[in-house]
Design goal:
alpha/beta; Alpha/beta knot; 2 domains; 4-stranded mixed sheet
């Protein structure tokens, strides 16, 4: 369906969801921007509720392939001007989609989990989810004060990783960690200093790696119940890494350990 008026009811609903995080949370919906992100969603979850496509991009193979996967009744074709009024990225992204934000119930703990406590920068949250999925973490659990995991900025930074791991929000991480430990899991708290060197610390399975927010780090309550505190060693004069970079280093140290264990068998 081609739409030429910004006053169209379906287009206004899309615009409202894009503009308001409150409305997205209330409706349980999120907006995916870009063909790659929508493709990942289609492959892992299914067709979006609404697909909005830039008319002049319909001849692009990637856009044409996406349109073929979505029913015409769910597809809206718009001009560059209207698309530019909707998207937060340049019109060259060519497509955006409205989808239901998954709301998983609390899963049974996996063997490898990432805990994010009060990480408030959307780019960092998205990058951490992306790194966790790439490292094979089964779950990413976010405390209540983290950035909304399904906001456009977080989704863009994660580049589809939301649909490659299990993302659960509004978790009481202290209570979860206590239960995880009681069931035989181990919690490693990543701290800026005074922890065991990451590359020498014991990182057993099952493992939950806890990362704190950009300024204050982890809360004392979560640090105190962790089995171990680990620190990334850095050259003299460096105080800390960006939170997302630190998470990636720690996650892939776990991957390295596990790969070495498997190759030695």
């Amino acid at each position: 369906m081609r739409i030429d008026s910004r006053h169209n009811a379906r287009l206004r609903e899309v615009a409202r969801l894009i503009a308001s995080s409150r409305d997205r949370r209330k409706a349980g919906r999120c907006v995916l921007e870009g063909v790659h992100l929508i493709d990942v969603y289609c492959a892992r979850i299914g067709a979006p509720e609404t697909l909005v496509v830039l008319d002049e991009a319909l001849a692009r193979p990637d856009v044409a392939g996406l349109v073929e996967r979505v029913a015409s009744s769910r597809t809206i074709v718009v001009s560059r001007k209207l698309f530019g009024e909707l998207a937060t990225l340049p019109a060259d992204v060519a497509a955006l989609a409205v989808v239901a934000a998954p709301t998983p119930t609390m899963p049974a703990p996996g063997d490898f989990c990432l805990l994010l406590e009060d990480v408030q920068d959307p780019g960092n949250v998205g990058s951490m989810i992306r790194a966790a999925a790439a490292a094979g973490a089964e779950q990413v659990l976010l405390s209540r004060q983290c950035a909304f995991a399904w906001s456009p900025k977080v989704l863009r930074a994660a580049q589809g990783a939301h649909f490659l791991t299990r993302v659960v929000e509004d978790v009481d991480l202290r209570d979860w960690a206590l239960g995880f430990r009681a069931a035989g899991g181990s919690v490693a708290a990543l701290v800026v200093d005074d922890g065991m060197r990451l590359f020498e610390a014991d990182l057993p399975t099952p493992l939950a790696l806890a990362i704190g927010n950009e300024g204050a780090g982890l809360s004392r309550a979560l640090i105190d119940i962790a089995d171990r505190r680990v620190t990334i060693p850095m050259a003299t004069g460096n105080e800390s890494l960006n939170a997302a970079a630190a998470a990636a280093v720690a996650l892939f140290e776990v991957v390295r350990r596990r790969s070495a264990t498997l190759s030695s068998r």
